[in-house]
Amino acid sequence: MISGIVKIINPLPIINTLKLITIIPASLHIIIATLLPVVEIGLAVLMLMKIKLKITTKAVAFLFAIFLIVSVYGTIAGFDADCGCFGNTVKSSFGWGMIGRNTIFLILNLILIKNAWPSTVTNK
């Protein structure tokens, strides 16, 4: 939620980061920079209110997986940018720190999914 709020307050770092990702057309930069924080905040609110948790946590896992892929791509491509995901509070430059943070977020979310809805075992 915090990351989404920060992106709404100052969208320039995320727009500049999107410009570095050449596979994203320039016509989508503003749209993504506008919709991404809304999606992040929306998913956070749904999780906090425990609404459709099974679907919501899977959507969050998908979002974290995308963030992880972009952080790996940006690190390999040598992006010299700060996505501004957490404002000035946390350094969000591409590199091992970003990859580690996104990996941890994804793993924690996957643990939440696994533990929140254990598979049903039927005895025959």
Approximate strand percentage:
under 5%
Q: What share of residues is helical? A: 55-70%
Report mean pLDDT, rounded to a whole number: 88
Q: Describe the biggest sheet?
A: none
Q: Which regions contain 5 or more consecutive residues with pLDDT less than 50?
A: none
Could you tell me how far the N terminus lies from the C terminus, measured between alpha carbons in angstroms?
44 Å
Describe the structure.
With 124 residues, the chain is mostly helical. The protein has one domain. The chain is 69% helix and 0% strand. The protein has five helices and no strands. The protein has helices spanning 2-9, 12-20, 26-48, 53-77, 96-116. Helix 1 (2-9) runs antiparallel to helix 3 (26-48), helix 3 (26-48) packs across helix 4 and helix 4 packs antiparallel against helix 5. The model has no long low-confidence stretch (mean pLDDT 88).
Supply the key terms.
mainly alpha, 5 helices, 124 residues, single chain, 69% helix, globular
